[in-house]
Design brief:
6-stranded mixed β-sheet; single chain
Length: 126
């Protein structure tokens, strides 16, 4: 996380969601941003960026930047550019999709440990 030079109370945090297609990355982000859930969410085809300012109990303002990546294998090179500098990476999989879990184990976890500077990685399942 980085601090704004002009205002020490403003904190910037980049969160990147990674995982297979149709595991709920966009739904998780939309739920946080709007408190809504869409059963018919369309698959993400290119990275999308969302932003929300959150005030903490001690009065600090966190500017949270969410990066929603496309889950298809052909878009992994694009996701690579996004997660390298992320403060937090959330790996997502669907509990009813064994292949999505195997991709976390066999690809994403090693990939981010090798290429990313991120120190906070979480695994999230839906």
């Amino acid at each position: 996380m980085s601090y704004n030079i002009n205002n020490k109370d403003q904190i910037f945090c980049q969160i990147c969601f990674l995982g297979s297609t149709y595991v709920g990355k966009t739904s998780i982000i939309n739920r946080f941003l709007t408190n809504n859930f869409n059963d018919n969410e369309i698959s993400t085809c290119s990275p999308k960026y969302y932003e929300k300012k959150v005030e903490t109990d001690n009065g600090n303002c966190i500017n949270v930047q969410f990066w929603d990546t496309a889950g298809q294998e052909k878009y992994r090179a694009i996701a690579d550019m996004i997660y390298k500098k992320a403060d937090i990476i959330i790996l997502t999989y669907a509990i009813n999709d064994k292949k999505s879990f195997e991709e976390i184990q066999n690809y994403w976890y090693d990939e981010i440990n090798y290429k990313s500077e991120c120190k906070g990685t979480f695994i999230f399942y839906i």
